[in-house]
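Mods, move this if it's the wrong board.
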Amino acid sequence: MRRKKRKVLVAGTFDFLHPGHLNLFAQARRHGDGLVVVVAKDATVEKFKGKRPYFSETERLGLVGSMKSVDRAILGKSGDLYRVVAGERPDVIVLGYDQWPDEKKLRARLDGLGLKKTEIRRASEKNPAKFKSSKIRAHLALE
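Not the wrong board. Structure tokens:
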């Protein structure tokens, strides 16, 4: 009998793709067979971070989708951020070490979406003093 493939989902802005993001993708892949990466829409980034990303959602989506470790890159949805999760129905969601949301709140939302079996994992950090998008933006004087 064939085992069901496990879908892993990661979401983020992914502006200035850097080794920290690659580390996140590598850690996420270890939890399943296929990695789906949700790239945040420009309006969503602006709403949560208070500024537009340097690269457009189309540019970021193309770059993330070109990564060998990513099986499928998709653009997030406007409005309810959990709509894309509901549509993808992942077996595992991997959060970045510094990423919201709180796991308890995420668990409650997943349960409400009928995704009680979806696992939540948090990736470990990789040199946050160097590989963090906000630090890279500041270093490049883009802030």
